[in-house]
Specification:
heterodimer; A: Rossmann fold; 6-stranded mixed beta sheet; 10 helices; B: 408 residues; mainly alpha; 2% strand
Chain lengths: 261, 408
Amino acid sequence: MTDAALAPDTRPTRKRETLLELSGVSVSFDGFRAINNLSFQIGEPELRAVIGPNGAGKTTFMDIVTGKTRPDEGRVTWGERNVSLLKMSESRIAREGIGRKFQKPTVFEAQTVEENLAMALKAPRGPFDVLLGRTGASGAERITAIATEIGLAEHLPRIAGELSHGQKQWLEIGMLLAQDPRLLLVDEPAAGMTPAEREHTTDLLKRLAERHAVVVVEHDMEFVRRLGCKVTVLHEGSVLAEGSLDHVTANPEVIDVYLGR
Amino acid sequence: MRALVRSNPSILWFLGLLAAFCLGVTFLAEATGTGAISTSFVKTLGKTLCLCLVAIAMDVVWGYCGILSLGHMAFFGLGGYAIGMWLMYARTEIIVSASLASAAIPPTPQEVEDAIASQIFGVVGASEFPWLWAFADSLVLQLAMVVLVPGLLALVFGWLAFRSRVTGVYLSILTQAMTLALSLYLFQNASGLRGNNGLSGLQNIPGLGGVPQSVVSIAFFWVSAVALALGYLLFAWVVSGKMGSVVRGIRDNEARVRFLGYHVEGFKLFVFTLTAIVAGLAGALYYPQAGIINPAEIAPIASIYLAVWVAIGGRGRLYGAVIGAASVSLLSSWFTGGGAPDIDLGFYEIQWTDWWLVLLGLSFVAVTLYAPKGIGGLIDLVAERRAPSRSRDLGPDASALRKTEAAE
């Protein structure tokens, strides 16, 4: 990553502390237990991959952390002061520093790449701040730096809807960078990317994880192996195994539910 | 300001055309020009400008922010009622004072007030001022009401609705319910606003008794035009830049905007309230030109018409709303005012006063099916063709050329 893209982040690389903690979280949809007594911790900085078969609760897990879904029971605490995320709105949680990249690229297709990035850029978020505030030179610089990082510098004035699938993925990663969150939740970042782009994504995530907490949900084992980080295996809404990739892939239960098929 | 105009060339076009139109009307009006345009038609044009103003407000709330409010004419009507109260009070006061002045004993202020009250409310069988009229004797306070009443109603209604995440059709139904409830309330004689009689005689501006209507009409026409120009600039500014990005983002993907950290409800409330205030101001300019306001003006159908104007004109572009409101409301008064010749089919005579609504309905369907971007979309088509070709290569990606291909 270019230095400018990380410029506002002056937090030193420090000893790992727990940033996010879920304990005993359960949630049911119409009687179906999507998340069952899930406990999960991530420190800052840390890179973590979450894998699991379809329906294991990966997306619901992200929905709970970002406030989209309220759990029936359990605690979700955040930051040094262990504040609960459960009473916060989605937008408040995002302002606390949790950024999310969706599985399907969701950018604002009717707007230009530059507008998409400007909207995501870390800045006061109130209606009057937005109306009266200006992006300014430093903001424009940061947008250019991020666009360079995600390979879209040439495409800033283009309408996002015209971009290819892979470029939209990049744009969404760029929006995540622009938000400058402490915790990044990244859902299948490499889907629809070329091998070269996948490599770039891996590098980017690794570098981000030097300073931030990054949770990557991924299906592709090869991609997870390249990340070279701790892996959490979800199954039926709870943690089945946790550890290095070699450790979890050697686990007979994991092989049974996920890898054996 | 300069950056705003540069980023949105429609502003200059719009202001230029509006200025040319106003000058043309002034030179043809009875009071200031040749008299080719009658005073009543000047009033119609002035009212049309007010409708254009409320239409751009509707376009911002619906076309840009995606909230299909079917209640914005309620705010328009409230603005009209607020200014109408002062107009009626002040004019009645002048008449009553004049008639009491000839009495042997000079009347006390209380006697004057009672006389005004029985003059205004005799028609609904009351002779006392309801609390609603507490500020009616003050132009300044009633002008404040023009802004405050629609603004506060929109703020409270919007807060309740947006906070509970009511969206889409359900929100539209709620806004219809709001405007219906308001008009039903005002229909009651006990509402304090003269029930279904409404407020009348609003074209007579107190203190300007000696000024002929031809002059009053052209003055209101100009004030309406200036208000429309300022409203256009205000909304062009609001929907430009980052605010515009966020507002359009809310229309296209509300949840995504939320996950970026924006408090979506706050933005919706801001847009809803701001547009309601502008609608109130437009109403305050409209009704002195119309001369009368009654609860039928804020019936649900009025707000639906507003949405139809914006849809026909092309939502998501401010000039589209102006085109839609101006063309449809002028055509409507032409057809319903007996301007269009009836068509005799031999076995049946098409009378436009009855058939105009059918024609409007058909054109709405036609626009929805064949020109989803409305009349304003046709202007975009022309503008895009005439725009100079992009100087820079868009890159090898074939999809990059798709936009120009689509226009050809």
